[in-house]
Amino acid sequence: MNKLVDTIAAIASGHINQAISIIRIVGPDALDIIKKIFTGKIGPNKTIQYGFIKDKDQKIDEVLVSFFIGSDNFVGEDTVEINSHGGIVVTQKILDLVLTHGARLATKGEFTRRSYLNGKISLIKAEAINSLINAKTSKQHRIAINSFDLEREKKIQDFLNSLEYLIGLCEINIDYPEYDDVPILENKKFIEKIDELVEQLNKITKHSEANKIFVSQLNVAIVGEPNAGKSSLINAMLNEDKSIVTNIPGTTRDVVEAEIVFNDLVLKFKDTAGIRESNDEIEKIGIDKSWKQIETSDIIIHVIDSTKGISGFDQKIIEKSKDKKYIQLWNKSDLIDKKEKDKLYISSLNKDISSLENCLSNLFIFDEIESSTLVFNPRQNYCLKKSLLYLESVQKSIKEFNHTYDVLIVDLHLAWESLKEILGNVDKEDLLDSIFKNFCLGK
Q: What is the mean pLDDT of the chain?
């Protein structure tokens, strides 16, 4: 692969006050730039040198500089890392100095992207790095670190090899049917191989789909009538005053979001406007957003005022939530005398929400993810499912329509291309843009 011609730089350790900061410079001019601003020795490959960063005659900081010369490093290009003291001001001064001498500021994930483009890592490994950095639970960490091995890539390559063999046989039988030494492609063996691929892809995609809740966050909408106790509930879950709580109906007029980690799941709670009839234009916008959250969220927590019972609007919420994971909570349990056995009672104002926590704990029950378990992320699983659809089309073409190989080969090629997207070997710049835009700056 051709290396990119410009030199990039960024703060690789985060733009915060910390003990040590790392300013990374990558590209053909990395050594020339460091020579202009570093008083110490320009070291050979894989060495660390001591000195000062200077802007003309003015010392900026006392530093250690690491040298990774050539292609035998993470990025696959000349790389220099300045280890400075970690103050925001001094770190930014060094970065500005580097940019002044010819580097440009790296975009999000550009170091990792270059590593991929230079053939140092696969796209699966690149995505695993980002997942590891952003892991918020132990299961997210385990899934990410498991992706560092070659098992996923080997599995995809096995699928590709099988498809390439079938495509090759199809092409030979299409182009040279008259030659005696051409292997004859028998329908029975062909469909057996397709059935085997479909079965394996089905198993992998279903497993990844089932475990996607551990890979990405779940959206949880808290809905109900005004003054049912929705805002008090989200405050109780967070143990802080996130939402405004008053006795005035319609206080919440927009969606208030808060993220928590609960039993290895990342839950994004969304406190919504109380659903009722209103002539207030601003409140009506908030109510429309509440209905939208019911449509788009993964879990619906429906808060009902125990002192009032189910209203007409509560009935509409129940109807709208029928295809969702739905939890019905009866709030203000401290204000009623009699409780029914089949209902979940809470007192959000008193932070008595144990019944909700128990319900959430039992809502998702999955086996432990073993180190050998293949879990593909949502993008990769989407590509797997696309490939599966094309192979199912091949199945149908043979079994129901007895199509010839010149027809079948079209879907086989599309199935192959879908799998290649997982490895990133399909030439699609927008695909790479979509993946690396989610990385942090400096990685």
A: 85
Q: What is the end-to-end Cα distance of the chain in Å, rounded? A: 21
Q: Which of 362, 364, 388 is nearest to 376 (CA)?
A: 388
Contact at 8 Å (CB) between 59 and 52? yes
**Distance (Å, rounded) from C-alpha 336 to C-alpha 305?**
10
Asked if 8 contacts 84 with a C-beta cutoff of 8 angstroms, the reply is no
How far is residue 66's CA from residue 119's CA, in Å, rounded to a whole number? Answer: 22
Return residue ranges of the chain for CATH 3.30.1360.120. Answer: 8-121
Give me the CATH code for the 151-211+372-423 domain, please: 1.20.120.430
Please give the average per-residue pLDDT across 289-316, as a whole number: 92
Strands 344-345 and 265-271: unpaired
Over range 83-104, report the average pLDDT: 94
Look at residues 145, 77, 155, 85 and name the one whose alpha carbon lies nearest to residue 115: 77
Residue 84 structure tokens: 């400075």
CATH 3.40.50.300 in the chain is located at 215-363
Q: Which string of b and e fits 117-128 if b means at least 16 CB within 10 Å?
A: bbebbbbbbbbb
Q: What is the mean pLDDT of residues 354-383?
A: 74
Instruction: Say if domain 8-121 classifies as CATH 3.40.50.300.
Output: no
Cα 88 to Cα 59, 91, 104, 328, 386: the distances in Å are 16, 5, 19, 48, 46
State pLDDT tens for residues 5-17: 899 999 998 888 8
CATH code reported for the domain at 215-363:
3.40.50.300
In this predicted structure, which of 65-69, 132-136, 384-388 has the lowest mean pLDDT? 132-136
Q: Give which of 128, 121, 200 is closest to 379, Cα–Cα.
A: 128
Range(s) for CATH 1.20.120.430 in the chain? 151-211+372-423
Contacts of 335 (CB under 8 A, 6+ apart): 306, 307
The pTM for the full model equals 0.72
The answer to whether 185 and 175 have CB atoms below 8 angstroms apart is no
